[in-house]
Specification:
It contains 17 helices and 16 strands. The chain is of the alpha/beta class. It folds into two domains: 127 residues, Urease, subunit C, domain 1 (Roll); 346 residues, TIM Barrel. Helix 8 packs parallel to helix 9 and helix 13 crosses helix 14. The termini are far apart. 47% of the residues are buried.
């Protein structure tokens, strides 16, 4: 993908958003925004061409914005206006639980899924997504639907033959991740068509920047098999060079790091964000116990102000593959087409469940489902530890964490919110993590993350103060995307049952 094409895609997105944007007035609303110490009550917000044009008190607005014509006026009495939510860790290339072969075999199911998935993120209030391993080509495919959240991507700087590219067969793996890093070894020939000079840290960062990436994602993962570590990991100097090159281009660096070793490595090499909670350690400990070695790592996270994405729901999602009631949960029907849910229930659709079951049986033939209580207890305790100490928590879900149907789009984030609160994160901390903290960490805070004049009008109207309860996100009245009103009921997969108590219909051009 050339720089020119990447710029064309950006221009197209801007033109489309301008065409859809409405002039919008929201009256008598309470603004809750993370940069404010308190709520701004009885406010009036005017949105023009997809951006917030003015914010005034209801009394003073009679002399200013009321004279402007608006396509839609909303009575916000009793409602709260907040920034749209940001999920800073998603993967949008494939349909959860489907391979490319499955998509080709079932084109109608795949088409319905790809049309719905962007809506499902919006249904739960996520107006911005960051795909941590993508390319301009994949982004263009994702953005070909409407409506679609604002979406950005990181380039995936994986070590050649390391995680995650090792899952792809050779030689195809050397093309699926164009930003891979090569660490030349004496006497070791490179694969055909791979030139070391094109895969240095400096070269891959330059290519990402030209392609329109806003961040760099790298990896420290030795693998997870019964036989022990199997994958190569990068050298510290390689990642330090990657960080220097990225920072020179004003790109933050995220690292896949879910073990104590990996998180210590990330801290040592200067990455900006640890893109997972601390799941695994190489020492014995009671469930939920944080040993001195672990707390020393967490203290460094706080001290260095490194961003930390807990992604607790990933572990629960692996267990949910073995839950007999998961596919019949009525919430699932709100985010996925019925045809896709029915396919998941077939023997073909259970393929990833069978892969996980076989791996579990290989470790212990007597065990029929994964037992993840230890890593769940560990990451839950670590998240609570960091929350109490004011760490820089960032909201990200890793949706989907694998080719699994148990990380459903949008709904997975709703479940992650509950995991975080159960771990000790306050609703106010979660609100900050999913709005301004995410925007700042990804250098998007000039555009989104707060309700301020000049910012993009990616907003939510909700019935409760999200600083007090996460139930606010379960009671979304309106989603506003680049100034365009979207009713939650119209975003649900099962629209015949989607007009819930949480949404109100438009009353002509005025919403009461």
């Amino acid at each position: 993908m050339t720089t020119t094409l990447a710029r064309c895609l950006t221009l197209c997105a801007c033109l489309c958003s301008s065409a859809l944007a409405q002039d919008l007035r929201i009256e008598h609303v309470t603004i809750v925004s993370p940069e404010r110490e308190g709520a701004l009550r009885d406010a009036e917000v005017y949105v023009h061409e997809g951006r917030i044009a003015s914010i005034t008190s209801a009394r003073s607005s009679r002399r200013t914005t009321r004279s402007r014509a608006a396509d839609v006026t909303i009575n916000g009495t009793g409602l709260y206006l907040t920034p749209g939510l940001i999920d800073s860790h998603v993967h949008l290339g494939q349909i959860p639980g489907m391979t490319e072969e499955h998509e080709r075999a079932h084109p109608d199911i795949a088409r319905a899924a790809r049309e719905q998935i962007p809506r499902s993120y919006l249904y739960f209030g996520f107006t911005t997504l960051v795909d941590l391993i993508s390319t301009p080509e994949a982004m263009a495919r994702w953005k070909s639907h409407e409506p679609v959240p604002d979406t950005y991507f990181c380039g995936g700087a994986a070590l050649m033959d390391g995680y995650p590219m090792s899952f792809a067969p050779k030689p195809a793996r050397y093309t699926v991740m164009p930003y891979m890093i090569v660490e030349p070894q004496a006497g070791a020939p490179l694969p055909a068509g791979v030139e070391a000079a094109a895969h240095t840290p400096q070269a891959v960062v330059a290519r990402m920047k030209a392609d329109g990436a806003i961040c760099v994602k790298t990896f420290f993962e030795r693998g997870f098999t019964a036989e022990g570590p199997i994958l190569p990991v990068p050298q510290p100097d390689t990642i330090r060079a990657l960080v220097r090159a990225a920072h020179a281009e004003d790109l933050p660096v995220l690292m896949h790091a879910n073990s104590a070793e990996a998180q210590a490595f990330g801290l040592d090499t200067g990455v900006d964000i640890l893109a997972h909670g601390l799941w695994n350690v190489n020492e014995s400990a009671a469930p939920g116990e944080l040993t001195p070695a672990v707390t020393s790592i967490l203290d460094r996270v706080v001290e260095k102000k490194v961003g930390w994405q807990p992604t607790i729901q990933v572990l629960y999602g692996l267990q949910d593959l073995f839950s007999p009631g998961f596919l019949s949960d009525p919430m699932l029907a709100q985010v996925l087409p019925r045809s896709l849910i029915d396919w998941y229930g077939t023997s073909e659709g259970q393929w990833f469940h069978d892969v996980v079951a076989a791996d579990v049986a290989k470790r212990d033939p007597k065990v029929v489902r994964p037992n993840l209580s230890d890593p769940i207890g560990r990451v839950t305790a670590a998240t609570g530890y960091l929350a109490k100490r004011g760490a820089r928590l960032l909201f990200g879900t890793d949706t989907p964490s694998a080719p699994t149907y148990a990380n459903p789009p949008g709904l997975n984030a709703w479940m992650e919110m509950h995991r975080l609160v159960d771990a000790g994160v306050t609703p106010a901390q979660l609100f900050q993590a999913a709005t301004l903290s995410n925007a700042r960490a990804l250098k998007l805070d000039r555009q989104i993350g707060t309700v301020q004049v000049g910012k993009r009008a990616n907003l939510l109207l909700v019935r409760a103060d999200p600083r007090q309860t996460i139930q606010a996100y379960g009671e979304i009245v309106q989603v506003i995307l680049r100034g365009q009103l979207l009713k939650p009921g119209d975003l649900a997969a099962d629209r015949s049952r989607s007009v819930s108590k949480n949404s109100r219909a438009l009353g002509g051009s005025r919403i009461e």
